[in-house]
Design a protein that fits this description.
The C terminus is likely disordered. 55% of the residues lie in helices and 16% in strands. The radius of gyration is 45 Å and the shape is rod-shaped. Helix 6 runs parallel beside helix 7. By secondary structure, the chain is of the alpha+beta class.
Length: 439
């Protein structure tokens, strides 16, 4: 959009400069030449009148011409008086190739010819062309600057509108941006905001329904499981016990599904948004820096992602990184490195957590994110929870290297094409949810 606006404005500037500059570049030098020629013609006419009134037309005394030639400003003009083919008077320097020539004739047939070099006139004409070119260049430059500023004002709201739509598509339906002042863009933005509010209401209603169903079914399912356990305990029939245990397994499965629905509904209320990588790493440094210094170990935080912004739930991403860092602190060795970098795709960003320890055993590596699996006698819940949190934001967590261990969190990112820094100066404010983010 900005490129097209610039192209249209620059095309209009070129046309305006051409329509005004080219005629001026032709007319002004032409006016300078004609004005100098007209001045010389008037001087020739004036000399013929002087000769005619001097009453000395015998071809012997042309002192008036000599007096005129000696005046200041006329030294470079050659004066010639002739009658027919006879040269009666000639004075002044011979001229070059580019000259002004003016002739006039007295009543008694004396022809006066003035010849003056046109070099100063050509210099003035060249200076005039230079002034025209300079004015056109300045006008074009000022026009381009104004066009760039105007195109930025037009394109910036569209970039933010696209970012808002991207956020809505990513699941964050409470995104807000400030009005742009452009009526058409503000209308689209308001309609998108109303649509996002309707989506938010529907999603909230669906999540609340899932939570209510899970809550309402939990009590009867608990009672049903107790009755089935009682039937299996009191019955002496082996077939009844078998069927009771099978039914009890199904009830427990339904209970787990209800619990998962309830947790999923409550966890996703926060929503995702674009985050700053520097802030994420700074939070981890603040949380774990003291523990690493106490353990006499080093926590190295690297941001190689540049201006790429991850899209995630702040609490979920912080918890997942904290789990990986804590495991490296407890079970790893040496320096723990947390590195954010750009992925191959422009829509992804990667966080890598590694240490210099022995790594993960081959026996448990395939199931490292399974709940209850642990190689150090722990509960095995941390990595499973981290996986749930990352996947809930549309990301992926993997063990990409076993020895030394490297855990990778891949998350969607705000596309580079929608990054406001590419078309806007830094410092613009985008309102995301209830807080303003400086991007």
């Amino acid at each position: 959009m900005r490129r097209r606006a610039l192209d249209m404005v620059i095309t209009a500037l070129v046309a305006a400069v051409a329509l005004l500059g080219l005629p001026l570049a032709i007319l002004w030098p032409s006016y300078i030449w004609k004005s100098q020629q007209s001045m010389l013609d008037e001087q020739a006419e004036s000399l013929t009148r002087i000769i005619a009134s001097a009453d000395r037309i015998d071809g012997l005394d042309y002192s008036a011409l000599g007096t005129w030639t000696g005046r200041s400003g006329n030294e470079g003009t050659m004066v010639e008086a002739r009658r027919g083919d006879e040269v009666l008077y000639r004075s002044g320097p011979l001229q070059g190739e580019w000259v002004h020539v003016a002739t006039a004739e007295t009543p008694n047939g004396v022809v006066v010819t003035l010849t003056r070099s046109a070099t100063p006139t050509i210099g003035n004409m060249a200076a005039a062309l230079g002034v025209v070119a300079l004015c056109c260049t300045v006008a074009f430059g000022v026009g381009v600057l104004i066009a760039m500023r105007g195109s930025r004002k037009i394109a910036a709201p569209l970039i933010y509108l696209a970012a808002q739509a991207e956020q809505v598509g990513a699941g964050q339906v409470q995104v807000r941006t400030s009005p742009s002042g452009i009526e058409e863009i503000d209308l689209v933005q308001e309609e998108l905001a109303r649509s996002s509010e309707r989506m938010a209401g529907r999603i909230a209603a669906e999540r609340q329904l899932a939570s209510d169903i899970a809550h309402q079914l939990r009590t009867p399912l608990t009672a049903l499981s107790m009755r089935l356990e009682e039937i299996g305990f009191l019955s002496d029939d082996e077939q009844v016990r078998t069927e009771a245990e099978a039914c009890l397994d199904q009830v427990e499965r339904m209970t787990r599904v209800m619990e998962d629905l309830r947790r999923n509904a409550s966890r996703k209320k926060a929503g995702t948004r674009a985050l700053h990588t520097d802030e994420i790493l700074a939070q981890q440094e603040e949380e774990w820096g003291a523990d690493f210094r106490e353990a006499n170990r080093q926590l190295c935080l690297l941001n190689d992602a540049g201006d790429r912004l991850p899209v995630a739930t702040p609490g979920s991403l912080s918890q997942a990184l904290a789990t990986l860092i804590e495991n490296s602190l407890r079970y790893g060795a040496g320096t723990v490195t947390v590195r954010a970098r750009k992925a191959a795709s422009s829509r992804s960003i990667v966080f890598e957590v590694s240490d210099e320890g022995a790594g993960v055993d081959d026996e448990i590596a395939p199931d490292i994110f399974t709940r209850g699996v642990s190689g150090h006698g722990s509960t095995g819940i941390g990595l499973a929870l981290a996986k749930d949190l990352v996947e809930a934001d549309g990301g992926r967590i993997e063990l990409t290297q076993r020895r030394p261990p490297v855990f990778t969190i891949s998350l969607p990112a705000l596309p580079d094409a929608l990054d406001p820094d590419r078309v806007m100066p830094k410092g613009a404010v985008v309102a995301l949810g209830r807080r303003g983010r400086r991007i």
